[in-house]
Design a protein that fits this description.
There is one protein chain. This protein is an alpha+beta fold and about 425 residues long. The chain contains ten helices and eleven strands. The strands form five sheets. A three-stranded mixed beta sheet has the order 7-11-10. Strand 5 (about 185) and strand 6 (about 190) form a beta hairpin. Helix 5 packs across helix 6 (about 300-320), helix 6 (about 300-320) crosses helix 7 (about 325-350) and helix 7 packs across helix 9 (about 375-390). The termini are far apart.
Length: about 425
């Protein structure tokens, strides 16, 4: 009996020894493989994270995987009529009288007079201002916006100042009663007292901003708040603008430049420093646009206007338009598209409660600056393209430029252009 008990105790002891050996071996294996396995798991997770972050940047970058542009807001009726051609004339010029554009509106030459004093606003150096005498509740329907007689009139500087300018827009100093005109009156309708006349103007909107370095490209606080200072922000703006091209019948699809660069100082041409530049390339008969340069720090509206112009250059190149178009024809068409974008934005802004909101004033200022440019390529070319589009439509203008190298009605370019 005693031997049986001892035998059982030996068996239990042996089992315990074997069990302890197995546990020791298992712990050794875990110690040997556990740490590398943990490192592998964490390393893999880190690699996946880095790959996902890089993939996100890759998909967001301009190129094949860029989102396809969607149709933007519908074009206002007067802009749509201009794009289609044969735009309806205002009652004031049904007789065939020569007309001019001011603030995006078509006026008979005889109607370009101050609504208060009758001063001729076509005289050289005579500024004019858009005035909305009717309250927003009785504003004309949208169909009339963009044409003379749409509820808004033109005033000379003196009568506009009397109606709207009571104090300095910068320091709030009140002007003297009966003062015929403030010392400084901008196209936006903002007035400034004599103490700001010699201050450095904002590069974009011309508001006085103080005595800064005259060589610097300084911005006022309002323009600086919306400045485009990153390539990602510029790319997002370009993608928004693609929807405008869809509405006028020019669909870029998924195309975007390989890179949209912000530069501090683009090259200069004969008219001064450019604010944008489209780089073009052709290899084996395939045309590409490697990059578009945009001046760094432009306010959003200003940058958008420049980008529309440069995107128009890209469109003409990618659609196999002649390589050697005259500067007047090519720049005129590109300025026309930027003008149509400004008209569309201004008309949509007009539907707000305030007839002349701050943003609408700034858009009207940019429109007026384009209408008054005197240089041959940008100013004269724009007016040529505008007249041709008014008569034939945008599609016919682009077709004529592509097939003949000229605007409709102009002599065809010689062979070898």
């Amino acid at each position: 009996m005693r031997e049986i008990v001892l035998s059982r105790r030996r068996a239990d002891t042996l089992g315990n020894v074997r069990r302890a050996a197995r546990e020791k071996r298992r712990a050794s294996e875990q110690q040997r493989f556990g740490l590398p396995l943990l490192e592998l798991v964490f390393g893999g997770a880190l690699a996946v994270g880095v790959f996902a972050y890089s993939l996100r940047d890759w998909l967001d970058a301009p190129g094949l995987f860029a989102p396809r542009a969607k149709r933007g807001q519908p074009l206002p009726p007067h802009v749509l009529a201009l794009v289609r051609g044969g735009a309806t004339r205002a009652p004031s010029d049904q007789s065939g009288e020569e007309h001019v554009y001011a603030y995006g509106r078509r006026w008979a030459r005889s109607a370009m007079r101050c609504a208060d004093c009758g001063r001729n606003l076509l005289r050289r150096g005579e500024p004019c201002f858009l005035h909305a005498p009717a309250p927003a509740a009785t504003a004309p329907p949208v169909e009339q916006v963009g044409w003379a007689g749409g509820g808004e009139v033109l005033l000379c500087a003196q009568h506009y100042a009397r109606a709207h300018c009571t104090h300095c827009s910068l320091c709030a100093l009140r002007f003297e009663a009966g003062n015929p005109r403030p010392p400084l009156l901008l196209p936006t309708g903002e007035a400034f007292c004599a103490s700001h006349v010699h201050e450095l103007p904002c590069y974009s909107c011309a508001r006085p901003i103080g005595r800064a370095d005259a060589a610097s490209r300084a911005l006022c606080a309002s323009c600086r708040a919306s400045a485009v200072v990153s390539e990602r922000g510029a790319t997002e703006l370009l993608r928004e603008l693609k929807s405008f091209f869809v509405t006028v019948g020019l669909d870029f699809g998924r195309w975007e430049p390989a890179r949209l660069r912000l530069v501090s100082s683009p090259p200069a041409d004969g008219d001064g420093h450019l604010e944008g530049l489209t780089h073009r390339s052709e290899r084996a008969g395939v045309r590409t646009v490697p990059s578009i340069d945009l001046l760094h720090g432009l306010p959003r509206e200003h940058a958008a206007q420049v980008l529309v112009h440069e995107m128009a250059h890209a469109w003409l190149w990618l659609q196999d338009h002649p390589e050697a178009l005259s500067a007047r024809t090519e720049e005129g068409v590109c300025e026309l598209l930027a003008y149509l974008w400004l008209l569309s934005e201004e008309a949509h802004e007009r539907s707000a409660a305030e007839p002349l909101s701050k943003r609408r004033r700034e858009l009207l200022q940019r429109i007026r600056v384009m209408e008054q440019r005197s240089d041959r390529a940008y100013g004269g070319g724009f007016r040529d393209a505008l007249r041709a589009t008014e008569e034939c439509g945008l599609a016919a203008v682009l077709h004529s430029v592509r097939t003949h190298g000229t605007l409709p009605g102009q002599p065809r370019a010689r062979a070898g252009w």
